[in-house]
Design goal:
By secondary structure, the protein is an alpha/beta fold. The chain has helices spanning 26-42, 61-70, 90-109, 123-129, 137-156; strands spanning 17-22, 50-55, 76-84, 113-120. It has a single domain, classed as Rossmann fold. Helix 1 (26-42) crosses helix 5 (137-156) and helix 2 (61-70) packs parallel to helix 3. The chain is globular and about 55 Å long.
Length: 157
């Protein structure tokens, strides 16, 4: 069979990224940022290709992501945050609005928004996903951003 396959690769050398990070739960989010930046560098990005943008919390990420996407300065946005379940329904509202809002930004603007927002039941689960037992979800989101940005470039050519 000779079927054409279009895929994104993991070369970040020609791409620009916004690493959008929530300040709330920064003891977790800072680890996600480190993982994302390290992953971008390992895939060929220089510090000049990366900008870190801070938002107050996960709920605010979609609004800031939309503004960043509309500038057309970035090939991808990596959204990072940590929403940890508490005793109230607050978690459900914040996590749901954050996830849905970021998906809408990507859909509406055509700029990839990689979802690196942890939504966990406990602080321990968040710590595990920010660089210990379960890897670093910030690094994973960066790899997704690289691949998706390259895929969309290839589709557009």
């Amino acid at each position: 069979m000779d079927i054409k396959t279009i895929e994104g690769d993991l070369q970040a050398r020609e791409l620009r990224f916004a690493v959008l990070a929530a300040r709330f739960n920064d003891f977790i989010v800072d680890q996600l940022v480190r993982g994302a930046v390290d992953s971008l560098r390992r895939h060929g990005a220089t510090d000049k290709q990366i900008e870190i943008v801070r938002a107050p919390g996960a709920f605010e990420l979609p609004l800031v992501a939309r503004k960043l996407a509309l500038t057309k300065r970035y090939d991808a946005i990596i959204a990072l945050g940590a929403v940890i379940k508490g005793a109230t329904a607050h978690f459900d509202f914040v996590a749901g609005e954050c996830a849905g809002g970021l998906a809408r930004v990507a859909h509406d603007t055509g700029i990839p928004v990689a979802f690196g927002v942890l939504t966990t039941d406990t602080i321990e689960q968040a710590v595990e996903r920010a660089g210990t037992k379960a890897g670093n979800k910030g690094a994973d989101a960066a790899v997704t951003a690289i691949e998706l940005a390259n895929l969309l470039r290839r589709i557009g050519q």
